[in-house]
Amino acid sequence: MSTYALASTAARKKFLSIVRDAGATFSRYVITHRGRPEAVVMSAEEFEGWLESLEIAASSSWRKALAQARREEKSGRRLSFESVVGRKQKSRR
């Protein structure tokens, strides 16, 4: 996944190619106008993922769970990797 910046005049000339590439390779294109970012072209699938993440982050239950996790972390209550996963990881060599 790569991100490219293109001036709007160049993007206009290559628009179909940009759309196809974004859909096929999950590349992102930041379209600039007079040197300032104005728009982004990305795959529809990636865009849907962003929307889903925003919906989750906006939910009150997620915000409450995050606040609880922050309180637990500040108080020093943490879970070990083994207690979460249920086994120790083998060391890699």
Task: Describe it.
The protein is α+β, with helices and mostly antiparallel strands and 93 residues long. The chain folds into two domains: 3-42, YefM-like fold (3-Layer(aba) Sandwich), CATH 3.40.1620; 46-76. It has five helices and three strands; from the N terminus they run E-H-H-E-E-H-H-H. A three-stranded mixed beta sheet has the order 1-2-3. Strand 2 (28-33) and strand 3 (36-41) form a beta hairpin. 3% of the residues are buried. The mean pLDDT is 89.
Total number of strands:
3
Task: Bin the strand percentage.
Answer: 15-25%
Characterize the largest beta sheet: strand count, sense, and whether it forms a barrel.
3 strands, mixed
Alpha-beta content class: alpha+beta
Backbone CA Rg = 21 Å
**What name does CATH use for the topology of the largest domain?**
YefM-like fold
Mean pLDDT: 89
Helix count, DSSP H or I runs of 4 or more residues: 5
* Architecture (CATH level 2) name of the largest domain: 3-Layer(aba) Sandwich
The helix/strand series, from N terminus to C terminus, equals: EHHEEHHH
* Highest-level CATH class of the largest domain: Alpha Beta
